[in-house]
Q: What sequence folds into this?
């Protein structure tokens, strides 16, 4: 049977230092009137230039390879990349003023208000942006700063500030419903706007978004009102703004594991023939901005959690070129699995491989939880990806597939350095789709496994752990249906397969070269 | 240490008496394990949670401490912790947790009883 393929992947960051006060840690600090922390936090914030030049961010948007990142001396925030570009091969790093403009563009209920001066500024910025130069914000919706101050003081709106100056606000969408409070609307519009940015970068990569039939949004926020708190639907809201005119969609939630779940749902929909192209997309989480701010200040580390992140990918029918999602190798943490790390890793890593007659060392790279260790280590959470690789290696040792003395070599060979912001769902498995897809097309690797994990206890409904995984691998160059056709025409099947594979590889290389030149 | 867990530890020790509570840690990091041990003995050093300024002095061990490992069914231990033993900095974790236990635990006499 034909396997679905990954047609492209995009990754974006929006530098939002003035949204840091809306992060959960800061919200709690304000409740306990911890002004000392809040003012100290400001002293540790980075400039947009520093955010762009930060090696981990450059890796996220595709300008440097994970292998290159690994060769840069830590701490990366002290070894910035000279001449780094905000635009990346997979996406971009957007400055705050443009993101505020995008927030307004994403707002269909006139809840975002901007000053006339900022609208003029924003329109100038949009006019030179490759994806938004057709957008002009309407000055008729402007509001004066004095009016905004009044709304903010009455807790009717949350402020949008730029370098300390009030340039806009986000109003509540209901007088009494806390699910539509100004804070939640700000969070949800941020999900939508960063999701829109990620989806449009797929278009920039040459993918036709009008060909998308279905959208799965897999971030961590819920949009709805008092009668249906998580009613949805971010998917359609994002699709509407990016030209997915032929798509419908829905939201999928599963804490950090949601993107991996979404990827498998998308693969199943395509493989089952229900839809031809499914877009998986997620926006960023405002709540997680400076989530570990206290620890970063204490350890004299800059506030590295200063951006919202988003990603998007399109899973489509087998084209003979792009890497396939091998739906025969899907690992799942079942309700009966238990929560011991060994049981979890067995269910996600070795069990699905074993069912297909493969072993752990057959997998070239593991894309697990890709959090940047520079963010997690000062907070006492250690190097998360490395811990995962050690566990996978230990599992291989226990299963007799690896010598114990090779444990750390396995980590180096099959691991990827963590380079992703702690935006919950964003670092979980999917950040490597872009680099991994290209590494497979370039014949640098044959396959990689996406492993998503989620901590369900946070919702207080179950103590169950969660996780799901899938193997992504090289396309053999021919779909089963195509191969059968060749057979019918009297070609020697293997010879034809080889010739077409070579031709496809050639085409893929030329396309990549062309993209690189552009 | 997670604020919710701090709350639960505090409530349990109030309900059953601190002398009747033993905290078993499972964290994979030495520093985080030490922090948790400090929290349930001397109070939350980050002053963020319910145990801020509350020195419960509880007995605290990590699952890899020999005192705990020795009383667990070896088959169960192997199944639940065997793989992690290979990757955790066992000696560092034991030393870190011991440091806070010996410094701040109020019920050490019960340990040897």
A:
């Amino acid at each position: 049977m034909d396997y679905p393929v990954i047609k492209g992947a995009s990754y974006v960051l929006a530098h939002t230092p003035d949204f840091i006060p809306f992060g959960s840690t800061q919200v709690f600090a304000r409740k306990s009137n911890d002004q000392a922390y809040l003012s100290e936090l400001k002293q540790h914030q980075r400039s947009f230039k520093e955010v762009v030049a930060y090696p981990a961010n450059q890796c996220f948007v595709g300008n440097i390879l994970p292998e290159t990142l690994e060769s840069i001396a830590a701490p990366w925030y002290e070894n910035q990349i000279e001449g780094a570009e905000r635009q990346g091969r997979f996406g971009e790093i957007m400055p705050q003023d443009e993101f505020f403009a995008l927030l307004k563009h994403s707002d269909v209920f006139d809840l975002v208000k901007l000053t006339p001066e900022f609208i003029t500024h924003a329109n100038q910025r949009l006019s030179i942006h490759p994806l938004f130069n057709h957008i002009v914000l309407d000055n008729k919706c402007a509001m004066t700063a004095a009016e905004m101050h009044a709304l903010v003081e009455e807790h009717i709106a949350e402020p949008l500030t730029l370098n300390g100056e009030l340039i806009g606000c986000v109003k509540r969408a209901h007088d009494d419903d806390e699910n539509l409070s100004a804070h939640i609307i700000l969070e949800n519009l941020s999900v939508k706007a960063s999701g829109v940015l990620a989806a449009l970068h797929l278009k920039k990569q040459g993918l036709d978004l009008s060909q998308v039939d279905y959208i799965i949004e897999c971030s961590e926020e819920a949009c709805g009102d008092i009668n249906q708190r998580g009613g949805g639907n971010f998917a359609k809201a994002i699709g509407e703004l990016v030209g997915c005119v032929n798509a419908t969609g829905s939201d999928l939630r599963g804490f950090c594991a949601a993107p991996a779940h979404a990827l498998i749902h998308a693969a199943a929909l395509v493989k089952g023939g229900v839809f031809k192209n499914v877009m998986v997309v997620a926006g960023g989480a405002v709540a997680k901005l400076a989530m570990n701010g206290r620890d970063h200040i204490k350890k004299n580390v800059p506030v590295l959690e200063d951006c919202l992140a988003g990603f998007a990918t399109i899973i489509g029918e087998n084209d003979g070129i792009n890497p396939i999602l091998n739906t025969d190798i899907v690992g799942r943490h079942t309700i009966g699995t238990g929560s011991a790390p060994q049981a979890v890793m067995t269910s996600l890593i070795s069990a699905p491989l074993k069912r297909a007659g493969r072993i752990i060392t057959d997998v070239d790279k593991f894309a697990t939880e890709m959090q940047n260790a520079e963010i997690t280590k000062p907070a006492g959470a250690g190097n998360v990806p490395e811990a995962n690789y050690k566990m996978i290696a230990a599992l291989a040792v226990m299963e007799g597939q690896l010598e114990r003395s090779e444990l750390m070599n396995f980590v180096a060979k099959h691991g990827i350095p963590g380079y992703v912001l702690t935006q919950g769902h964003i670092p979980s498995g999917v950040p490597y789709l872009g680099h991994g897809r290209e590494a497979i097309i370039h014949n640098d690797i044959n396959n990689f496994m996406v492993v998503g994990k989620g901590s369900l206890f946070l919702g207080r409904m179950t103590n169950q752990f969660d996780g799901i995984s899938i193997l992504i691998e090289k396309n053999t160059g021919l779909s089963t249906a195509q191969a059968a056709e060749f057979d019918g025409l009297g070609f020697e099947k293997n010879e034809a397969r080889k010739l077409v594979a070579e031709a496809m590889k050639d085409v893929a290389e030329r396309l990549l070269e062309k993209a690189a030149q552009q | 240490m997670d604020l919710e867990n701090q709350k639960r530890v505090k409530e349990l020790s109030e309900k059953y008496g601190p002398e009747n509570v033993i905290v078993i840690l499972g964290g994979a990091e030495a520093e985080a394990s030490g922090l948790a041990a400090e929290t349930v003995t001397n109070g939350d050093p980050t002053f963020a949670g319910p145990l801020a300024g509350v020195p419960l002095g509880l007995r605290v061990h990590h699952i890899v401490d020999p005192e705990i490992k020795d009383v667990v069914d070896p088959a169960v231990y192997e199944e639940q912790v065997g793989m992690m033993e290979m990757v955790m900095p066992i000696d560092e974790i034991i030393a870190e947790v011991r440091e806070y236990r010996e410094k701040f635990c109020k019920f050490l006499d019960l340990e040897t009883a």
Observations:
- The mean pLDDT of chain B is 93.
- Chain B is about 60% helix and 5% strand.
